[in-house]
Design a protein that fits this description.
single chain, about 10% strand, binds zinc ion, two-stranded antiparallel ribbon, about 70 residues
Protein backbone atom coordinates (compact mmCIF):
# COMPACT_ATOMS: atom_id res chain seq x y z
CA UNK A 1 0.00 0.00 0.00
CA UNK A 2 1.45 3.38 -0.96
CA UNK A 3 2.00 5.84 1.83
CA UNK A 4 -0.27 8.84 1.84
CA UNK A 5 0.33 12.35 3.09
CA UNK A 6 -1.67 15.48 3.34
CA UNK A 7 -0.48 18.10 0.90
CA UNK A 8 1.64 20.81 2.49
CA UNK A 9 -0.08 23.35 0.30
CA UNK A 10 -3.76 22.50 -0.16
CA UNK A 11 -4.16 19.92 2.62
CA UNK A 12 -5.56 17.24 0.34
CA UNK A 13 -4.54 13.62 0.94
CA UNK A 14 -2.37 12.25 -1.84
CA UNK A 15 -0.08 9.32 -2.59
CA UNK A 16 3.35 10.27 -1.35
CA UNK A 17 6.06 10.01 -3.99
CA UNK A 18 8.83 12.12 -2.55
CA UNK A 19 7.15 15.51 -2.82
CA UNK A 20 5.55 17.35 0.08
CA UNK A 21 2.76 18.63 -2.15
CA UNK A 22 0.18 16.85 -4.30
CA UNK A 23 0.46 16.54 -8.07
CA UNK A 24 -1.77 19.48 -8.91
CA UNK A 25 0.02 21.76 -6.45
CA UNK A 26 3.33 20.59 -7.83
CA UNK A 27 2.27 21.60 -11.33
CA UNK A 28 1.12 24.94 -10.03
CA UNK A 29 4.37 25.47 -8.14
CA UNK A 30 6.28 24.72 -11.31
CA UNK A 31 4.23 27.30 -13.20
CA UNK A 32 4.72 29.89 -10.46
CA UNK A 33 8.45 29.17 -10.24
CA UNK A 34 8.76 29.77 -13.97
CA UNK A 35 6.93 33.11 -13.74
CA UNK A 36 9.03 34.18 -10.75
CA UNK A 37 12.30 33.31 -12.47
CA UNK A 38 11.22 35.18 -15.61
CA UNK A 39 10.26 38.20 -13.53
CA UNK A 40 13.57 38.10 -11.66
CA UNK A 41 15.47 37.91 -14.94
CA UNK A 42 13.95 41.26 -15.94
CA UNK A 43 13.95 42.73 -12.42
CA UNK A 44 17.00 41.40 -10.61
CA UNK A 45 16.58 43.84 -7.70
CA UNK A 46 12.97 42.87 -7.01
CA UNK A 47 12.08 41.92 -3.45
CA UNK A 48 9.69 39.14 -2.48
CA UNK A 49 6.95 41.75 -1.95
CA UNK A 50 7.56 43.24 -5.42
CA UNK A 51 7.34 39.81 -7.02
CA UNK A 52 4.25 38.88 -5.05
CA UNK A 53 2.33 41.99 -6.05
CA UNK A 54 3.57 42.05 -9.65
CA UNK A 55 2.68 38.42 -10.33
CA UNK A 56 -0.22 38.08 -7.92
CA UNK A 57 1.40 35.11 -6.20
CA UNK A 58 1.06 34.75 -2.45
CA UNK A 59 4.02 36.22 -0.57
CA UNK A 60 4.77 33.06 1.38
CA UNK A 61 5.06 31.12 -1.88
CA UNK A 62 7.44 33.71 -3.32
CA UNK A 63 9.55 33.54 -0.16
CA UNK A 64 9.53 29.76 -0.34
CA UNK A 65 10.76 29.96 -3.93
CA UNK A 66 13.51 32.43 -3.03
CA UNK A 67 14.63 30.25 -0.13
CA UNK A 68 15.06 27.31 -2.46
CA UNK A 69 16.60 29.14 -5.41
CA UNK A 70 18.79 31.94 -4.13
ZN1 LIG B 1 -2.09 20.15 -3.01
Amino acid sequence: MPSVKSCRRCGRIFNYRGSAVCDSCRKEETREAKRISEYLAGNPQATAVDISSALNIRLDRVQEYLKRHV
